[in-house]
Every structure is written in structure tokens, then in C-alpha cells.
Amino acid sequence: MSNEDALKAELQKLTRERDAYADALATSNAAFVDKVKEFSIIKRISDSISWSHDKQRICTEIVDLIIDETTAENCSLWLIDTDERFLILASARGQENHQPKYFPPASKRQRKMKIGEGAAGWVAEHGTSLLIEDVSKSSIFVPIESKVSNQIQSLLCLPIKGRGNTLGVLNLSHPDIGAFSQENERVLQLITDQAGIVLTNYFLFEEIESFNRKLEYKVEVRARNLRMSEERYARAVAAGKVGIWDWKIGSWWLYVAPNLKAMLGFSDHEITNNLKDWLKLIHPEDRQNLFRRIMEQLSRAPHVYEGEHRMYHKDGRIVWFFVRGAAVLDDRGRVIRLSGSNTDITQRKQAEIELQKAQETSLAQAHTVGRAEFATGVLHNIANVLNSVNVTGNYIQELVSRSRIPLLSRAFTLLDANSGNLVEFLTQDAKGSKLPEYLTRVGGVIEKDFRELQRLVLEINDKIHLMRDVIETQQTHAKNNERMEAQDIAKLTEDALKIQMEAIKKHAIRIQRNYRPIPKVTLPTSSFLHVLINLLKNAIEAMEECPPNRKILQLDISEEDNWVVLRITDAGVGIADNHMKNMFQHGFTTKKYGHGFGLHFCHNAIESMGGSIRATSPGKDQGATFILSMPVHQHIKATREEDQEPLTSRH
């Protein structure tokens, strides 16, 4: 090889090395430019962290950055709402708007789309990127009504993620087909990663702000409540209603505030701070076992004693106190101190006593009215039966008065007069030949009248038996008065039906019974029967205007969880919703001439027996059900003074 050839070969080698270095340099330079661009993007987004509390600036900066750094012509940022049901448009920039626009929450221009709807909705639902090179060939793309939407040919959507969830979607579009590539997606992924960090910081900041606002509100409310409590306490102390004390357990030392002593009419020096002196002022019945009751309550968490007792005022009258004390424990959990307050509740106690007296008076009045209604009901039913008997008797009298028997007497007179030639008389005589047919016809009429008389006599007997049963039932239960007896509620129900039977028949009411086996219940028989009669009477009256096919009285008796339950259901006028809560109040009635005692008596009587009564109704003209529940195994308090035990102290 000549020197010239060797020189050419060396030159070619150097040229190849130069080109290789140039290519490597160009590649490195391009990579460097990309890295610089990436760092620029990261820095630009990271700078937004310093104003992460400004949602508008975050959203507009993100779309601004994408339009500046990518080939996208249009960009919109969508955020998922708190319920995660919609994507909400937050900001946008594109061909129509060269400056980014921000859409505040609940603004008129704000748009939203369901998660799963369109390309952005699909990305929000699946949490992965979506590249559509030609939207005309995609079934996912859903155009939004705008000028730009009609020009879109390619689309790239990326999810923005933070804290493991999709926070929003970046929606990029271009008027050319295939405008986006995998390289665009890589750069955009970098942007969305940084955007996710910034948005996460914003949402965290928003949560912290919300938490702080709620915390400040709670602190404000508690501070206000504390101030109000302190003001109430100060007013109560100033009004002489509350006084404090402090007792060192195991000693006789007891601090009593001067105003508490004053509540009992004593000056501070008149009562020493000695427990013995204070105990002397407590009513003997309430003083009994006081320490045991206190220690029983203090032995259990939260180590607080609460109770009521009477104390003697200096002038001899009784003052009622509500006492509350909180324990102080030592290191071993033992009670070493008890601090608390006495609140004067005398007025409340007096009001309770007056209310109890009023209730007892009302109950006694209701019992009196109930017994009167019972007797009136019995007399009314007997009067109805007697009226029916009178009607039947008049009919019998009318039937007898038009009897054909006198006609038979005249016929027999003719037969007696012609007894000597009877055959000739019956066959040849003008009158006698008609006599056999006449006797047959009159005999048929008499036989028919006789059968009708038999039926009427039986009907009168039934009425008489019914009157006797009603009177016997009334007398039996009247003798029992208020005596407590074990009774079968099903039998008492039948007794009440018997007393109301005439009214039931008068209105053609059908009775449907569903009696299940039940145990006996201890109750005051007469009062309970009064209740049943009252409820049945109301049910009958409620169905007076009902069509015949609806006049059904349903009676259900069963045992449910140690309660005997009686349901009385009618198909009558029903109970309006606005009347339901007042049904058992004294004086309430919907009847034209009602006095409002009946259901009030029923309610008071049943509650005094330890039971309960309530009413249900689908509404007006849809019938009603009265549900009466009585305990099977419960001692019922006596209702007569002679049955009550003397007052004793029980705690």
C-alpha cells in the first residue's frame, strides 16, 4: 500500500470517528436538552408548591405548562368531586383561549361529566392513560359542544394520581390526526406525576384548613358552653339554689359553703364544718343507710354519687336537695375525698306531688265515669232487649187478634147441628158441601200462625235469657269491685261482648275471633271489663255507617314475650294522623256529643294495672286497631287505699 493509500485510510478512519463523536455529541446534547426541559418542567411545577393553597393558580399553571411544553393545541384539567361521581372542569386553555381559564366551583360556566363517560371519564374510571390517534375511529370519544370540539382529531388523556387514588384527568387534544406519540406521553407522565404531588399538597392543605375550622368551632362552642355553664352556676349560687361542699373521707371534717347553709336558713357560724352536725339536718328516713348508698356508687366508675334527700330548714319546713358528688382517688384507686354540690329542688318536688295528686284525681274521676258508663251500658242494652220484647209481644197480640179460630167455632156449630144426618149435610147441602174445603183452608192458616207464634215465643225466651246473662255478668263483676284476681282475658272479652251483644246484633256486625292459648293475668276485674266494654262500644259506633259487607269486628288474643295481647280491630271511620297523638288525653273527643273521658279512662286504668294501650290506623275511613297488652308475670299495684302498704324508706 502506497503512502497515499495509507493516508486516505487514516483519513477515512478519522472521519468515521469524527462522525461517531458528532452523533454521540448530538445524542448527548439532545438528552441534555430533554433533561434540562424535564428539570425546567419539574422546577416550574415544584415552584407551585409554595402557593399550594391557591387552587386557581395551580390549575391554570398546569394547563399553561402543558400548552407551552408540548405539541397539544388544547388542554383541560378535570378534577374528581368529593362524591367521586363526576369529573368537574377546573381549568382550560386552547385554540379559542390563549390564556388559561379557571372555573370556580359552582360557577355557571363550569362543566361536569359522569365518571366512565367519554375519554376523560374512562381514564378517571380505569386510572390509566388513553391515546387516541384518530377520534373518528374511537367509540370512547364523546365530543363536548364547542367550536374546538368539532376540530379535534387526536386525543391524549392522562390520570393525575395522589395518595393511591385518581385525583383528576388531563385532557389534551389536537386538530391533526396522530399528533401525539409515546414520547409525548412520557413527558406528560412526568408533568402529571408532579401535578399529582402539588394537588395532593393542596387537598391536604384544604383538609387541614377544614379540620382547623371545625376544631376552632368546637373550641368556640365548648368555650361558650363553659361560659354559659359558669354563668348559670353563678346565677344559681346568687339565687341561693346551689351550694358546694367538700368531705374528707374517713373523717368528720366537712366543708359546707356559707350560701348552702343559708339555703337552710342558717348563718355560717351557726353550723360548724362537722359532718355530725350536717347529718342531724337530714330527714331520718333519708339518712338511713346514706353512707352505704354513697360508697356503693363511688365503688364503680365513674365514681360519682347522685341522689335526692330531704333536709330540715331552720324554720322546720322540708327542703329537697339533689346531691351530686365526684370522688378523688389516691394512687391505689381508693376514694379519699368527695366534692360536690346541693341543688334546691323543692319547687320541682312540690310540682311532682301536685301532679301526682292531679293524676290520682283524674284516674279516680275516670274510674267513676267508667263505672257509670258500664252501668249505663248495661241498662241501655237491657232497655234495647226490653224494647225488642215489647215489639215481639205486640206482634203476638196482633197475630192472636186476627186468628182464624173463631171461624172454626162457627163451622163446628154447623156440624153439631147436623150431626144426625152429617153425610147428607156434607154432600147435598149447599153450605155443608163447602165446609170440608173451608176447614182445610182455615186449618192451614191456623197452622201457619201457630208456627209463627212458636217462633216468637222462642225469640222472647232468648231475649229474656240475654237480659238475665247481662244482669248476672254485671252483678258478678260489680261484686268483685277492684279485687285483684287471676283472670282469663278471653273470657272477660266474651263477657264484654255479651253486654254489647244487642248493639252488635242491631248493627248486623260480624265477629271474627282468633284466640290463642294464653295464661291468666292478675288484674282488677271490674276496671278491666270497663275498658273492654268501652273499646267494644267505640268499635261498634265506628262502624255504624259502614256498608254491611264491611261490618266486621276482629278480635285477636295471643301471648307475646310474657305479655297477653288483645287486638280489637274495626273497619270503621279510622283515626286521622293529627288525632293519633291526642287519642288518650283527657277531654279529647271527635264525637259530636262526646265528653272525652272514655279513652282517657282506658289509658289510665290499663297503665295503673301495669299494662299498656295504643292505637293504630292506616288513616281516615280505613278502620282502627286498639292494642291492649297486659304482663303475665308482674305484680300489679293495688288501686284501693286499704290494699296499699304503709310508706317505708327504700333505696
UniProtKB/TrEMBL annotation:
Keywords: Kinase, Phosphoprotein, Transferase
Domain of life: Bacteria
Domain PAC, first and last residues per copy: 305-357
Residue ranges occupied by any Histidine kinase domain in the UniProt entry: 445-634
Record InterPro entries: GAF (IPR003018), GAF-like_dom_sf (IPR029016), HATPase_C_sf (IPR036890), HATPase_dom (IPR003594), His_kinase_dom (IPR005467), PAC (IPR001610), PAS (IPR000014), PAS-assoc_C (IPR000700)
PANTHER family, sorted: PAC DOMAIN-CONTAINING PROTEIN, PHYTOCHROME-LIKE PROTEIN CPH1
Catalysed conversion reaction: ATP + protein L-histidine = ADP + protein N-phospho-L-histidine
Molecular functions per Gene Ontology: protein histidine kinase activity
Pfam families: GAF_2, HATPase_c, PAS_3
Organism: Acanthopleuribacter pedis
Enzyme Commission number: 2.7.13.3
NCBIfam families xref list: sensory_box (TIGR00229)
Residue ranges of domain PAS in the record: 229-301
PROSITE patterns according to UniProt: HIS_KIN (PS50109), PAC (PS50113), PAS (PS50112)
Protein name from the UniProt record: histidine kinase
SMART domains assigned: GAF, HATPase_c, PAC, PAS
EC primary class: transferase
